Amino acid sequence: MAAREAPWKTAWVTGASTGIGRSLVLKLAEAGVKVAATARTQANLDDLAALHPNIVPAALDVSDREVVLQSSVPSGAQIGDIDLAILNAGVWHPSWAKDIDGAKAAQSMAVNYLGVVNCVEALLPHMTRQQRGHIAMTSSVAGYRGLPKSCHYGPTKAAIYNLAETLGIELKSQGIDITVISPGFVETPMTSVNDFPMPYIMSPDEAANRILKKLPSKPFEIAFPWQLVWALKLAQMMPTPLYLWQARRSLGRGPDK
Ligand SMILES: NC(=O)c1ccc[n+]([C@@H]2O[C@H](COP(=O)([O-])OP(=O)(O)OC[C@H]3O[C@@H](n4cnc5c(N)ncnc54)[C@H](OP(=O)(O)O)[C@@H]3O)[C@@H](O)[C@H]2O)c1
User: Fold this and answer.
1) What is the end-to-end Cα distance of the chain in Å, rounded?
2) Could you tell me the sign of the dihedral formed by the alpha carbons of 155, 120, 216, 57, in that order?
3) Ligand 1 in contact with 90 (CB < 6 A)?
4) Domain that residue 202 falls in
5) Would you state the pLDDT for residue 252?
């Protein structure tokens, strides 16, 4: 994205210290956008900020509602009113269903879902006052259907998709646009733990390019790669008993293999 193409003056990216968020921050900064880059690991954010003067780092745990509401980031205190927020922070605890763990599920929900809700709550007073703003939130193709090893993660991403629909209906009339981002596999610290095939995996730079190419037109959803998106959207359209039968067949003997 060349500087003259960026339709935003300011942006806030959560989960900015590694992976997709880090690539988004760098590309936005290079396109002339002033970016508030937040995550928990200050050292990573400082290293990122050293790469471009448009990057303003701030440590922020999105799962802590009080901290998010008291933060000066959502008001744009350091960079000016926020034009674009990409709520991207996330965690992934892969697990077979037999090992389901309430603590991991709670942490996943606290970061992946409630973390987004906390940031939206903090942003809305400002965007409502501005009568404009664009909020993008990262879901996953894993939110379209229940998938193996996804008992902690999948429900959080399905929740994001549903939240985006609700917000997308209600906030448009106030000048606020909502986009849900549904990536397939991206090569980041998150997926480095995976011990299963990850078809069509792409680099974080490629994922960021795809997101930033489409965001200016404010679509409801940005989903990629098309091969995984179509396969899982088709699965969404299947009657549930048929989907479950097919998924069990594909899984084979699953965790007992
Ligand atoms: N990689 C994939 O294949 C894939 C596919 C679909 C969707 N996604 C989604 O894309 C988003 C980015 O993932 P990624 O692949 O880039 O993973 P990643 O490299 O592990 O990045 C996750 C980011 O979230 C931050 N984070 C975690 N917990 C946080 C918290 N409590 N508060 C604030 N920040 C927190 C991490 O930074 P700190 O640890 O420094 O806080 C890090 O910056 C996630 O929402 C993920 O679910 C990824």
Assistant:
1) 46
2) negative
3) yes
4) 3-256
5) 76
